[in-house]
Amino acid sequence: QVQLVESGGGLVQAGGSLRLSCTASQNIFGVNTMGWYRQAPGKERELVAAITTDGNIVYRDSVKGRFTVSRDNAKATLYLQMNTLKPEDTAMYYCGASANLASIPRLWGQGSQVTVSS
Q1: Given CB 3.0 to 4.6 Å as the disulfide criterion, which of 38, 71, 76, 78 pairs with 22?
Q2: Which residues have C-beta within 8 Å of that of residue 80, sequence separation ≥ 6?
Q3: Each residue of 85-107: pLDDT tens digit?
Q4: Residue 69 in contact with residue 77, Cβ under 8 Å?
Q5: What kind and span of H or E run contains 73?
Q6: What are the distances in angstroms from CA 59 to CA 2, 9, 93?
Q7: Element holding 10 (H helix, E strand)
Q8: Which of the four pLDDT bands, split at 50, 70 and 90, describes residue 20?
Q9: Are strands 107-108 and 91-98 parallel, antiparallel or unpaired?
Q10: 3-class state of residue 104 by DSSP
């Protein structure tokens, strides 16, 4: 079956950078949107950034200007470049595939831990 495999998480100091990758094992049909979500302990999962097939991109306000979402169709890979990381960015990050921006992802990556120290 189709799988989303994530990599690139880790431990960094505040102000540092990380790049997350999410690669699909095969083509995913009926997917318009690929996005990154995160969940911190005791909190609900929240959208970080998403990109649609027609090029629309959205970011949550707290990451605008620091994070960049992109995709490489040839490699079937989604990326999240995270710069100027802050301790409040600490969370488990998940990539997800959905039919559209308004829909909950129907396919999720396994999660990648991002920890930012002060």
Answers
A1: 78
A2: 19, 20, 36, 48, 49, 67, 68, 69, 93, 95
A3: 999 999 999 999 999 888 999 99
A4: no
A5: none
A6: 26, 19, 14
A7: strand 10-13
A8: very high
A9: antiparallel
A10: coil
Q: Give the C-alpha separation, 72 to 1, whole Å.
A: 21
Q: What are phi and psi of 48, to 5 degrees?
A: -100, -50
The closest of 97, 105, 114 to 39, measured between CA atoms, is: 114
Q: Count other C-beta atoms under 10 Å from residue 21's C-beta.
A: 18
The shares of helix, strand and coil residues in the chain, as percent rounded to the nearest 5, are: 10, 50, 40
**CB-based contacts of 1, cutoff 8 Å, min separation 6:** none
Q: How far apart are CA 50 and CA 111, in angstroms?
A: 16
Among residues 28, 46, 31, 36, the alpha carbon closest in space to that of 9 is found at 36
* Mean pLDDT score across all residues of the chain: 94
Task: Please give the structure tokens belonging to residue 33.
Answer: 């949107």
